[in-house]
Amino acid sequence: MDKALAQKVIDRLASAKSPALFTHLRPDGDAFGSLLGLAHALKDRGQNPTLHVEGGMIPMYRFLPGSDLVEDIPGQWPTKADAFVVLDTSTRERVGKKTLGWKQPVDVVIDHHISNPGFGSLNLIVPEIPATAGVLFRLVEMAGWKISPATATCLYAGLSTDTGSFRYRGTDAQTLRIAASLVDLGADPSEIAKNCYLSITQQRYHLKKLTIETLSLKDNKKSGFLTIMPDFYSKSGAKSEDTEGIIEEVTCIQGLEVASLFEFSPDGGLRVSLRSKGRVDVNSIASSFGGGGHRAAAGIRFPKDGEKNRDLVLASISKAISALKD
Ligand code: AMP
Ligand code: MN
Ligand code: MN
Question: Which residues on adjacent β-strands are paired with residue 86?
């Protein structure tokens, strides 16, 4: 982590009375963990952050301390706010449609996505730490700010979910040291795991079952793709956030290099999730279509022409797989 840059970010955050914190649409555990973790740290210093995410809080992460602080994105830039802070978000568009017309420039971006172009005045992007929550831990530690059990719980949840429970490639000694420090500071790994992984709604389970049944293997069984059709939601009663984790269920199939998930929306749009075992760089595939992410996990969003774009992405995956040397 660039210490001089980190210090500038600390100074900017410290100087704001009411920073407005944002994260990405379709928020995950790192999005909420980072948002709430930083909010607790700032509140403990007497600051008054506001927390915004498209659609507001989702039930699965309601167990996080302070989750009732999370609000939907307002129609206009909240004029009382004195800093525009964006966490865990790889592009300006992913802050949410409602924010795109705001004249207010983004002051601080804190992230770990290698594809992040840096769309703020200060951009602390640390790809060697596998979750924004981990970057925030190092930042708050460097600032010498208090890390309460609530802060530690939120940051640990972000770190744990973005590393697939400390299983993915980015998990190294530093990741585990950060996790250990957070446990020392009051995070309870078993309680957090119970909420994040060991408890799902029946609706979520139903959606998972419908989706997994669509698995189709191609490229000599080196790639597999899943499809979510709009009616899967009415059939299962699940919500859009319930897709999180489904793709991981098939990425682990032996012989697969790449897994993809195509979610069609009723308006003809398409959301794509890509996962790689590591040999294929799915970030470069996603980036070539205007998406992004990391080498082993990336995503793309197409506003229209869902089927045509699905075929283009599948062709790009086939090309990357055929370029691999066996
Ligand atoms: P997902 O497949 O939605 O779990 O996302 C995998 C990774 O790719 C995450 O790190 C996301 O932040 C990133 N990502 C997903 N969709 C996009 C997108 N449309 N643009 C840029 N990055 C994305
Ligand atoms: Mn995220
Ligand atoms: Mn993240």
Answer: 22, 109
User: Is pTM, for the whole model, over 0.85?
Assistant: yes
- Amino acid in position 207: L
- Atom index in ligand 1 nearest the CA of residue 162 equals 10
Query: Does residue 168 register a pLDDT over 90?
Result: no
At residue 20, φ and ψ (nearest 5 deg) are -100, 120
d(CA 98, CA 54): 9
Helices 173-184 and 132-143, interaxial angle, to 10°? Answer: 60
Residue 237 amino acid letter? G
Q: Which residue has the tokens 């709009």?
A: 230
Average pLDDT over residues 282-291: 96
Contact 255, 222 (CB under 8 A): yes
Ligand index nearest the alpha carbon of residue 136: 3
Structural tokens at position 91: 């592009």
The phi, psi pair for 217, rounded to 5°, reads -100, 145
The answer to whether the Cα torsion of 199, 204, 205, 208 is positive or negative is negative
Is 90's C-beta closer than 6 angstroms to any atom of ligand 1? yes
What was the pLDDT predicted at 325?
A: 83
Q: Is residue 174 within 6 Å of ligand 1 at its C-beta? A: no
Residue 29: Cβ within 10 Å count: 26
Ligand 1 pocket, residue 300 CB under 6 Å: yes
Spacing, Cα 227 to ligand 2 middle (Å): 22
